[in-house]
Each structure stands twice: as structure tokens, then as C-alpha cells.
Write a structure and sequence with these properties.
CATH class: Alpha Beta
Mean pLDDT: 87
Largest sheet: 5 strands, mixed
Radius of gyration: 23 Å
Oligomer: single chain
Structural class: alpha/beta
Strand content: 15-25%
Shape: globular
Distance between the termini: 52 Å
CATH topology: Trna Endonuclease, Chain: A, domain 1
Length: 194
């Protein structure tokens, strides 16, 4: 490699640069991808969203299905739980989506982000909620969550429910078999793409 510096061409020692390239080449060569996830969940089924459609834009579907899940759970608790409260806020941050008694509940469709900022929030928010006298609770629809993110939740002292255990928790708190209710809706809300 030749670099022009101050009018003269320099030839840097490329060993360090080549070592970086070798390390990445080795890493990329070892990288394996899991088979495409063809799992369905009750929220996808509610709208008739296939795994193929979801793969077209994972970020979009994850965000939108997550917001739908949050609104559904919040409304269910609002209607059925006497000690319902809106999410706990601390300055600009909302540490959870809703409160039921001393449970500070945050809803997630799936936790797939392993970025440092997200993991730090999981750890800090859980501790802050505990310091305020709450039991931090994650209610997650899917089971295929990023292990590092789930570990961060545990470090933050969250009670983590996924899949069936999420619906068991909801039934215990609201006396509603929410999974059965969602499944009973049928195809009424299946999306029609143009």
C-alpha cells in the first residue's frame, strides 16, 4: 500500500494491517448462521404474519409487534387489576410499561438487541426499580431471545417470563386466560397486503 504524505509517497509496514484483515477473515470464516426461524407465536398468528413476511423487515415487525403487545397487556391490566398504574418514570426514562401493585412490568415481544446501551439499561432499570421497592418483571412473548440480553435482565434482577410462562403470569394476575383469548380471535385481524 502506498500513501502520499506531504508530497512524498510512503509505504507503511502492512503487517499490522494484514493481521487485522486476517483476524476478520478467520472470524467471518468461522461464523455460522442458524437456520431461518420458522416459529410462529400467538401475536404473529393473530395477524396472519408468516415467518417469511416477518423476515422481509425484522426490525419493523419486531418494533410494531412489540408495541401491539405492550398496548394489549397494558389495556388488559387496566381493565382487570385494581392496583393498576401507568409505567414508572424517572426523569426522561420510562423504566417499565405499567405497574400492578409492587410489580413494575415491562413488556417485550422479543429481546434481540445485544448492544451495550440496551444491556446497560436492562441492568440499571432493574436495580433502580428494586431500589424504589418494586419487583421488576419482563413479560416476553417469544422464547428465542438473545441470551446475552436475558443474562443482562437477570443481572438487573428482573423476574423474566417468556413464552408460556408469560401467559401464566398474566392469568395469575388478571384471572384472564389471555393466550386462549388471543387464540380465539381467529382470522378477523389477518392483514391484507396490497
Amino acid at each position: 500500500m502506498i500513501v502520499q504524505h506531504g508530497g512524498e509517497m510512503q509505504v507503511p509496514d502492512s503487517r499490522a494491517l494484514q493481521e487485522i484483515l486476517r483476524q476478520y477473515s478467520d472470524s467471518f470464516s468461522r461464523k455460522t448462521y442458524s437456520a431461518e426461524n420458522d416459529d410462529h407465536d400467538v401475536i404473529m398468528d393473530l395477524f396472519g404474519i408468516s415467518p417469511e413476511l416477518k423476515r422481509e423487515n425484522r426490525q419493523y415487525w419486531g418494533r410494531e409487534l412489540g408495541m401491539c403487545w405492550q398496548l394489549l397487556v397494558t389495556e388488559l391490566f387496566r381493565q382487570t387489576v385494581k392496583d393498576f398504574g401507568l409505567g414508572y418514570r424517572l426523569e426522561q426514562d420510562e423504566l417499565c410499561d405499567l405497574v400492578s401493585g409492587r410489580d413494575a412490568i415491562d413488556t417485550k415481544y422479543r429481546i434481540g438487541s445485544g448492544d451495550a446501551g440496551t444491556l446497560k439499561k436492562f441492568k440499571q432499570y432493574g436495580k433502580t426499580l428494586r431500589d424504589q421497592g418494586f419487583t421488576p418483571v419482563f413479560l416476553i412473548v417469544r422464547e428465542d431471545n438473545l441470551p446475552a440480553a436475558i443474562q443482562a435482565c437477570h443481572v438487573g434482577q428482573w423476574d423474566v417470563y417468556t413464552g408460556r410462562s408469560t401467559f401464566d403470569y398474566i392469568r395469575e394476575k388478571t384471572s384472564v386466560d389471555f393466550l386462549a383469548w388471543l387464540e380465539s380471535v381467529g382470522s378477523e385481524y389477518h392483514i391484507q397486503r396490497q
